[in-house]
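Task 17 of the worksheet. Students: predict the tertiary structure of the chain below and write it out as structure tokens. Keep your answer in the requested format; marks are given for formatting as well as content.
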Amino acid sequence: MAKDDDNKAQEKAQASGIDKELIRELAKLLDETNLTEIEIERAGLRVRVGRGAVAAPVMAMPGSAGVIPVAVLPADPAKHPGAVTSPMVGTAYMGPAPGAKPFVDVGSKVAVGEPLLIIEAMKTMNQIPAPRAGTVTKVLIEDGQPVEFGEPLMIIE
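Model answer:
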């Protein structure tokens, strides 16, 4: 009787296009690699497994393969009202010189125009000023990290 139930469950999963064993393997891979999300597409079936967020259903486009529920990612820092974004492509430095104290840290109070960091672009050091007064609540980059135009650098609230 138990085998009949197992067979029915497998047939039902196969009929719906969901491979539970694949999902288990992906979840195990998430744990082993400390990733927060992984997605694969095979034979028109897309499977995304995530952790650490609330699940929300995704609507399938007409004519597309079935999509299973996915994890909702945290809010985009670039959309935060206090986000300071990079005005250029370059390399961001948190202090005025290598090994020097950073211009600001999390918790620092800043005034409008106060230097937050430096972006080196084409061998030119460009100070990035605070666009608003407030407190630095989050630094989203590392010292010496390459940054893109529009990439969020930090949050000032």
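Marker's comment: Residues 21 and 27 are 10 Å apart (CA to CA). The longest strand covers residues 115-121.
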